[in-house]
Structures are given as C-alpha cells and as structure tokens.
Amino acid sequence: MIFETIVTTQNSSGEVHIAPMGIHKQDDLFIILPFRPSTTLTNLLSTQTAIINFSDDVRIFAGCLTGRRNWPLKMAEKVTGHVLENTLAHSEVKLLRVEDDPVRPKLFCQTVHTVNHRPFTGFNRAQYAVLEAAILVSRLDRLTPQKIESELDYLRIGLEKTAGPIELEAWQWLMEAVTQYQQESKP
C-alpha cells in the first residue's frame, strides 16, 4: 500500500528539504523510494533520518511541486530533523538499509517515534483531485499532453463539486505549473 505523505529531511548543515512522496508500508517498516537525483535521497543517506508527515493540507503537496516550500516547521522529538507544524501526525524514522537501484533505490526505515496531533476527518473529492493532479504535475515530462488533459478534465469534476478555498488555491498553483510546462515545451 502507498500513502501520500510529506517527507522532511535535512542536510548535514541543517537545511531542511520538504517533499511530497508516496511511501510504502511493509509490516513495521516505511519504504521511501526517491528517484535519482533527489535531495531527499541525498539527505537521508547523509543523516540516516527523516520525518514522515501525514497531512490533509493539499496546499503543501501542490506547493512543494510549484516552488512553495516555506512551510512552518518545528523540531522533531527523537531524531534530528523537523516536523511540519500543520500535520495530522508524523513518524520520525531512521534508515535501516538500502536496496540500491540506479533509478529509484529503496530506503527501508524504522519508526523511532510517532505522534498523532489531531484526528483525520477524511478527504473530500477536491482534496483527492488536488493530490492526483500533484502526481500528474510531478510527471509532466513523462506523460503525453493528451493524457494530462484527460486526467485533469476528470479531476475537475470532483474539484468543482467539493472544493473550498484551500483546494482551489492548491489547484490553481498546479494549473499554473501545467500551463508553464506546456508553454516551455512548445516547439
């Protein structure tokens, strides 16, 4: 199973990196699979720690993909790192082992500490639409323009029916990224 999360890591100088990532769960381990090259990969290999943030604020997912990475943070409790302030829960993890791969290594991490900050009350369709659109934006260079447009057309249905201001703002950021990509890739 894959969980859409926000992973925070930091480099050896303490600079924090925030990235949306689909995290696999296997028994009591989290498996992080960053593509190469990746700041998350470099940081995690260097410091051996990460924070997995479980958030319902889709602006963070969309924001990280559109250059908006300045989200409020607080110090982690048991590992060196930072937690998103606006997260439902977080798990502080340590790297156990790496299955190397030239494209996408598997980083097996053990939970050291988990905190539930507030209850998860569920996603509405607009939040799902933004999450799926964020995944599309992360793959613009690998998908055909027709695939992107057909997926976005479908996702707009749920967005238009259930979105609030947060989802609309996140969607707008993503659509700006799609438009910019399309303009830059025109011959």
Short description:
The protein is an alpha+beta fold.
Characteristic key phrases:
Pnp Oxidase, Chain A; alpha+beta; six-stranded antiparallel barrel; single chain; 187 residues; two-stranded antiparallel sheet; 5 helices; 2 domains; globular
Question: Layout of SSEs?
Answer:
Layout: E1 2-10, E2 16-26, E3 29-32, H1 39-47, E4 49-54, H2 58-65, E5 73-75, E6 82-84, E7 89-99, E8 106-116, H3 125-138, H4 145-162, H5 165-184
Antiparallel strand pairs: 1-2, 1-4, 2-3, 3-8, 4-7, 5-6, 7-8
Protein described:
This protein is α+β, with helices and mostly antiparallel strands and 187 residues long. The model has no long low-confidence stretch (mean pLDDT 95). The chain has two domains: 2-116, Electron Transport, Fmn-binding Protein, Chain A (Pnp Oxidase, Chain A, Roll); 125-184. The chain is built from five helices and eight strands. A six-stranded antiparallel β-barrel has the order 1-2-3-8-7-4. A two-stranded antiparallel sheet has the order 5-6. Helices cover 37% and strands 31% of the residues.
